[in-house]
Write a structure and sequence with these properties.
The complex is a heterodimer of chains A (145) and B (232). With 145 residues, chain A is mostly helical. In chain A, 67% of the residues lie in helices and 0% in strands. The chains are: A mainly alpha (145), B mainly beta (232).
Chain lengths: 145, 232
């Protein structure tokens, strides 16, 4: 019986350890691969930094080969599943400006589901309401004490 | 003034300073140069560069884009304005909220939980693995058919990575926060790597920040854009 209990405990610990290891494994990426993917854009970025004020239009009109590195001057982005801007706003604004809210909106709205839009609206409105409640509670209640 | 009154005043002062100190330092405004490089799965790529200004009291996030073209993006309340040559080009209603931007979160020292603590998401699991503390945030019950979990990892008290899952648990996006800068005591990521996964195919976005300025007294006019006079 004791041996059975010890064996069962070991099996549980191993399975828990495996599930924990799985989560940490998610937080990794191929740095070299991404550097390679960004090589041309890094080159273009360097040129723009060396030539302040230059625009893509000027590069194109000068016949600069760097201009061809940009596929869509109006902001092709990797986060818009329908190849259009979400609500007319470029993808980079959603991703890096609006944090997780923006990510969820782009992902879900891109599927053109009325239900998912409603879910997001509900979730976000709820978040705002909660934040407002928290703010009022903090200032009106905690501050008094 | 008798001894009792003096003691009460002294105690009141002490409690006030303690309360202020215990809230943690908060900052009001941030300004930085940025560049955003995007490479999508089909090989298309884009580069966006400029400066961004944010004052958490104004709640306006203003992007002064220089490349590929000179344009200003202003997020104010739930609207995003696109302005070219001082003329309004577009005005779009969004779900945007300044409180959920990385700038606001950093200024309020809430970057570690990605702002999720003040939402309806619930922290359902916390694990430590090596030097990572991983918190799993689950959406409210009613939204679980549409929204998946968000895993937030912290390393050395700094936000390290964020994993977004779909309702079935598949990873749809990863974000990594690197090259932290320390400006007047404020910790801010100098680089954010984003990997978007759609049907197993990856797209990438690398956002870099440099020359970060916190709580500057100059450039007041850059932190607020009067949108009341803008008309299409």
């Amino acid at each position: 019986m004791k041996k059975l209990l010890v064996l069962a405990s070991m099996l549980i610990l191993i399975s828990v350890g495996k599930s924990m290891a799985g989560q940490a494994d998610l937080f990794s990426y191929d740095q070299v691969a991404i550097e390679n993917q960004m090589a041309q854009l890094n080159q273009l970025e360097g040129y723009v930094l060396d030539n302040p004020g230059i625009t893509l239009g000027q590069l194109a009109s000068e016949g600069n080969a760097l201009a061809s590195m940009v596929s869509d001057p109006n902001g092709i982005n990797g986060f818009n599943l329908t190849n259009d801007r979400v609500f007319g706003i470029p993808g980079f604004l959603w991703g890096c400006v609006f944090s997780w809210v923006g990510v969820l909106v782009v992902y879900l709205v891109g599927k053109d589901s009325a239900e998912t839009k409603s879910a997001i609206i509900g979730c976000v409105v709820g978040a705002v309401a909660y934040s407002l409640f928290y703010g009022v509670y903090y200032f009106a209640v905690l501050r008094i004490y | 003034m008798n001894l009792l009154t003096r003691s009460a005043l002294l105690l009141g002062c002490f409690l006030t300073f303690f309360a202020i100190g215990s809230q943690g330092q908060q900052y009001n405004r941030i300004h930085t140069e940025f560049s955003v490089k995007v490479k999508n799965a089909s090989g298309g790529q884009s580069l966006t560069m400029g400066q961004v200004f944010y004052d958490r009291n104004n709640k306006q996030l203003i992007y002064y884009v220089n490349f590929p073209e000179k344009v200003i993006w202003v997020t104010s309340d739930t609207l995003v304005y696109q302005i070219k040559d001082d003329k309004l080009v577009s005005k779009t209603a969004t779900f945007s909220m300044a409180e959920f931007t990385v700038f606001h979160l950093a200024l309020n020292s809430h970057l570690q939980d990605f702002g999720l603590k003040n939402t309806r998401y619930i922290a359902t699991e916390v694990q430590r693995e090596g030097d990572l503390v991983i918190t799993t945030w689950s959406p409210p019950e009613k939204a679980r058919a549409q929204l998946g979990n968000i895993l937030v990892s912290v390393k050395k008290k700094q936000l390290f990575g964020v994993i977004f899952q779909d309702p079935k648990g598949m990873v749809i996006r990863k974000q990594f926060f690197e090259d932290y800068l320390l400006i007047r005591g404020l910790s801010f990521p100098g680089k954010i790597i984003e990997i978007n996964i759609n049907n197993g195919i990856e797209s990438y976005q690398v956002t870099s920040y440099k020359n970060v300025v916190v709580d500057e007294m100059e450039n007041d006019n850059k932190y607020y854009y009067n949108t009341s006079n803008l008309h299409l």
